[in-house]
What we know:
Elements: E1 16-20, E2 32-36, H1 46-49, E3 55-59, H2 66-74, H3 80-85, H4 92-95, H5 100-110, H6 113-117, E4 119-124, E5 127-128, E6 134-136, E7 141-142, E8 148-152, E9 155-159, E10 162-166, H7 167-177, E11 180-184, H8 186-199, E12 208-210, E13 213-215
Parallel strand pairs: 1-13
Antiparallel strand pairs: 1-2, 3-11, 4-7, 4-10, 5-6, 8-9, 12-13
Amino acid sequence: xxxxxxxxxxxxxxxxxxxxxxxxxxxxxxxxxxxxxxxxxxxxxxxxxxxxxxxxxxxxxxxxxxxxxxxxxxxxxxxxxxxxxxxxxxxxxxxxxxxxxxxxxxxxxxxxxxxxxxxxxxxxxxxxxxxxxxxxxxxxxxxxxxxxxxxxxxxxxxxxxxxxxxxxxxxxxxxxxxxxxxxxxxxxxxxxxxxxxxxxxxxxxxxxxxxxxxxxxxxxxxxx
Length: 224
């Protein structure tokens, strides 16, 4: 199956299921309804995912949405699902950075002003000896009394280089960490879309109707 033209929305790319109707006004137990197969999902090929040069590192700015980024890079906002899929984002609400207003609402619903200013944890700051050699990297979570003892130019030294991280800072860091994503470069886009179309194509089986439609079992019908 070959991809051609704009894919528009993700759901338009999903194959269909001929599914037993659940409607209250169905005529019989044999009624079926065509629905999208939301259970079918594709992942990026390992050879593309492992190819560092296939991606551009990008930091999501402010309240940017996936459709806006897709338009900026691919000139098609309908390719927002490519942005999400290539970053293995399934639950956008939890895995995409919150907008400024959503973030404020989230903080207000979870913490009081006092709680936000309380210490959440401690982290190391960078520590080097007098020769510039790294003794302690930054960003490691440590207990409040953490210290490092080392020999520096023949002298035994003990230093505690840590910083406090408040609940507000911690939540901000967690939200900001979601801003770092990878954008699939345009020269790999067609290959990705063709692979996606092939994965979404049904193979022949007892349930096969066409490349994009298959029939499901009807639990209301008992085989003789």
